[in-house]
Design a protein that fits this description.
about 230 residues; alpha+beta; Jelly Rolls; five-stranded antiparallel β-sheet
Length: about 230
């Protein structure tokens, strides 16, 4: 093989690796959820949020940083059913999930009165093709009796002050048999104040092998590209 041909192959490999690396980073930064901050009120049939069991989308304008917009979801306390908001397979981004794929879910939460028992947070759950849950649900850090409360206005019960608490499931891995996934904001047996959740963000985490391939290509190809420019 001629040296020039070999260099050309290496250069093409460098470009391919760079494209692979850029694609991996791009995919990892994309929020897979529809209407993640509840501003659009996207219909459930179009992949938007299911807000059920007395949970309610707020209509107030108070939504301080780091949350954005003027809407969030309130998960009330002390009711017989578990209040949740969730997205599932009607959001096509949450389908065609296979074993080994990794994800991370983050959001912000707040309580408006102190919680005396129970907890709230965000959650990822995986399901097989029949809709049967697979493995444990992956829960974030919890909002509970140790969480400082904000305050509410009357009579609308909208928050007027308080601090958003970052919620994070960490990186979770889809188990064997996974076909789709759900994500939740959920309040579990909470007694005390309501929990507010906002600004959900679900991202896919690139596989280490993909990242390694791209980085290796860059390490090999960049010096070659630099030499070509000097020639």
């Amino acid at each position: 093989m001629q040296p020039s041909t070999f260099k050309r192959i290496l250069l093409y490999g460098e470009v391919s690796a760079l494209v692979c690396l850029i694609s991996a980073f791009s995919a990892s930064g994309q929020n897979l959820l529809i209407d993640p901050s509840f501003e659009l009120n996207t219909a459930t049939s179009a992949g938007g949020w299911n807000i059920v069991n007395s949970a309610v989308r707020s209509t107030g304008a108070w939504d301080p940083a780091p949350a954005t917009g003027g809407h969030s979801v309130r998960l009330p306390a002390t009711i017989t059913q578990t209040p949740i908001c969730f997205q599932g397979p009607l959001n096509l981004n949450l389908t065609n999930i296979t074993a080994g794929m990794q994800f991370e879910l983050t959001a912000f939460g707040m309580i408006t009165n102190a919680i005396t028992s129970g907890f709230a947070g965000i959650q990822i759950a995986f399901f097989d093709s029949t809709g049967t849950g697979i493995g444990p649900a992956f829960f974030s850090n919890k909002i509970d009796s140790t969480t400082p409360a904000g305050s509410i206005s009357s009579p609308s019960s909208l928050p007027t002050s308080g601090t958003w608490i970052p919620l994070d499931t960490g990186v979770v891995t889809a188990p064997t048999g996974t076909a789709f996934m759900d994500v939740y904001g959920i309040s579990v047996n909470v007694v005390g104040g309501s929990t507010w959740v906002d600004n959900f963000n679900l991202v896919a985490v690139p596989e280490p092998s993909t990242m390694a391939l791209g980085i290796m290509g860059l390490l090999i190809g960049i010096p070659l590209l630099a030499r070509r420019r000097k020639a």
